[in-house]
Amino acid sequence: MANFIDRRLNAKGKSTVNRQRFINRYKNQIKKAVSDAVTRRSVTDIETGEKVGIPTRDISEPTFHQGQGGVKERVHPGNDQFTRGDQIQRPPSGGGQGSGNGEASDSGEGQDDFVFQISKDEYLELLFEDLELPNLQKNRLNKLVEYQIYRAGFTNDGVPANINIVRSLRGSLARRIAMSAGKKKRLEELKNKLKLLEDTPGSNADLILQLKQEIELLEQKIAKVPFIDTFDLRYNNFAKQEVPSSQAVMFCLMDVSGSMDQATKDMAKRFYILLYLFLTRTYKNLEVVYIRHHTQAKEVDEHEFFYSQETGGTIVSSALKLMHEIQQKRYPADEWNIYAAQASDGDNWADDSPACYSLLEKKILPLVRYYSYIEITNRAHQTLWREYEALQQEFDNMAVQHIKQADDIYPVFRELFKKQAV
User: Fold this and answer.
1) pTM (2 decimals)?
2) Do residues 215 and 198 lie in contact, with contact meaning Cβ atoms separated by under 8 Å?
3) Which tens digits make up the pLDDT trace of 96-148?
4) Transmembrane stretches, by residue range (predicted)?
5) Domain range holding 194?
6) Domain-terminating residue out of 213, 237, 261
């Protein structure tokens, strides 16, 4: 019997090719499972992949087998009831007990589902295949990774131009002290002893000569200690640090008045998640600003943004004004790529809609890369929709879409960010 031992240096990822074949083969089923899993995520959660399940009926392989009918001769082990020539009655059609179990589980996965984990990169690739950011050609330079040189301590190797004189002399002094301190102390003792013998009449001349020779030998050893050695040299160390030039900010604006129920907010959340995940594929540093509004606007965290509810009317311009103020203070347009996404059910004071048009036309749209507005409602459109439609005709970085139910979110998102014909 042959034994095969894998002695490759890198034994990891050996099934990568098979995995890619599997994903390509069942891409439609996997993409559907991935798009359905968006709702369970936080807006800024991109650190992990996703666990997806595919019904086993969708991954069945073609097989060859004998059809029903015909004469078959078989030997059944353990037979104690039949003899040769007995005829066995065929079981009724549909009476067999299959091994499958179609019962649903409380985790949303059927017992006949094939469940596996996909990585973060695979998740994003499947979710945003064939999509791109509009107007990106205006900002290609901001996608380059830039580096900044900064001091990073000292090193033993380097070029002469980077020698640190103070550190090198300090090392030289420490080395000379370590190598000659004992000799200098011994030299001082011998000199004192020699002086004492020379001042004493009748001292032994041979002892005096021996001391002089030892003193001379110590002085030669001390003199041989170099003032500076290559071991003492220290160089300034410099390292590269990435400059976050590829940075963007995503403004999320949402109406939280009494007309916006939780189901509508959940649909808006799915859209914001898709937009955030999509932007992270282009920008390394992405910040999110949440602005909720009814008659007044306020910057909040993610939980309050999606789950708080207010009563009263709706003034959309308050959110646009606050967004512009935050952008001017914290996110200069020459340093940040600005994106905005607004979700609403279309309610707004009729007198406020022209004010929204003016704010977007003069202050916001000239600065943002892309402004997307989704209206989540089954009712007829109101004044806000008509003003935004007029802006869409005037600006190519303004997009307006209508969502009626949760199933419309992903198709609408793909429509907003589909690749433009060259």
Assistant:
1) 0.52
2) no
3) 555 445 444 444 444 456 666 666 666 666 666 655 555 443 444 444 456 67
4) none
5) 160-237
6) 237
